[in-house]
Amino acid sequence: MHARALLALDEDPHVQRKVTELMLSVLKDTRTLPAVEGVRRNVRTRHRLRVSDVAGMFDAIEEFNDVIATERGSGEPARVISVRYRRPVGPATMHRIRATLRYALNIAIRQERLIGLNPAAVVELPDAERPKALVWSDERVADWNRELHDRLGIEQQRRGDRRNSWRRDRPARTGTCAPGRAS
Fold this sequence. Notes:
Layout (H helix, E strand, L loop, with lengths): L2 H4 L8 H12 L6 H10 L8 H24 L2 H6 L8 H22 L6 H4 L15 H22 L24
């Protein structure tokens, strides 16, 4: 028997490197690289990856979401700037992070025999509910346009001659063009 085959996960000092290599070799699609980076940043891969480690990663993500909300709501410019380009991680993104980790660990189980149980498969996350589609009725569009013009006027007064560069929410987050398409 090969000596590596005798090493258990808790005895292998290079688990994080191996899992990272597997994730990068298997997930060659460039759209998944941000998810791989997120997993690498958030999972503190120890010699033994447990379910509590993966659950702790998601708890840390939720805690950081709370930090972002607190800092933005503080009103203090320095605190708001500290989270300026950080966006909270939503439930759907957490499900994608879990799926990426699960997939990589499944490959590790099949190819390298690094671990026997996939801890990412056991972790439970809250459901990611999608917003209900709303029809962009004439009334909603009129309200949206009215609010937009009001906000533009206020923003123009505040900024003076400077150019406006900000986004405004649509009448419905998942708006549709025709009433028959909303279900």
